[in-house]
Amino acid sequence: MTFSSFCILLFLLAGLLLGLTVFPKKLLKANNLLLTAGIALVLFCMGVSLGSSPTLGADLAQAGVSALVLSVAAVAGSVAVVWLLAKLFKGGRGE
Amino acid sequence: MIWVAVLSLAAGLACGRFVFTPPMLAAVDSLTLVALRVLVFSVGIQVGSDKSVFSRVWHHGWRVLLAPLGVVIGSVGGSLLVGRLLGLPANISGAVGAGFGWYSLSAVLLGELAGAQVGTIAFLCNVFRELIALLCIPLVARYFGYMAAIAPGGATAMDVTLPTITRSTDETTAVLALLSGLILSMLVPVLVPLLYHLF
Lengths: 95, 199
Prior knowledge:
- The complex is a heterodimer.
- Chain A is mostly helical.
- Chain A has helices at residues 3-20, 28-51, 56-88.
- The longest helix of chain B is centred in the middle third of the chain and has 29 residues, at 116-144.
- Classes of the chains: A mainly alpha, B mainly alpha.
- At the A-B interface, helix 1, helix 2 and helix 3 of A face helix 1, helix 2, helix 4, helix 5 and helix 6 of B.
């Protein structure tokens, strides 16, 4: 694990602890806003880095095809395994 | 939310293509790192503040873990399998699959770890996952049972796809879906970097 992703985990953990303990409920709305702003900012940055690539068109086409195939596989795999687990551990709810 | 995301990405693309100069591009790179840390911190606060989750998990017992466990195995397994066919490295297809439909966070994490190209795959893949989930949940509920209907949405089962799941199943399944989405959301920032470094 690199230093950078270790840092990410530390920040996540710090947030979790803060949320579990002393974070005031009143500020949750503000936190939600920060979340949205942060996501927008980071996606903007990603767009900049992608847009500055000289092979932009080919990059996007390749990403689109891979993304579509991966998403179908992830959904199909999830449904199959959860269906199987639900069958194995029957006696369950919602059947 | 999805429009905020798409517009930000599009604006960034346009700026990177036509507006920004090389020194500005370097500044944007270091800004990304800081923004990412703030973002993940904020995610932690949001998840940690919902304390009612813990009592509900207690009430439903270990069965709560069935759906998220299946989604983790199925998503990562399925992605690894087709990733091989696409000629993608295993660490990338596995990590993209572990986004569980949370396109913004997984795209940001992988953009940082593996570059903008992989970040874009993660973004699109998980946007597609959300769309596919919204379309197929009613059918999955009908033909594969209520538990399986929790699976397509992945982490989005706690917000975006929850209304569809609730409409297609019953109250108990809706609660299990919410909890599954929460557990998966907490796993995204852990599993994405882990899988990326594992393979």
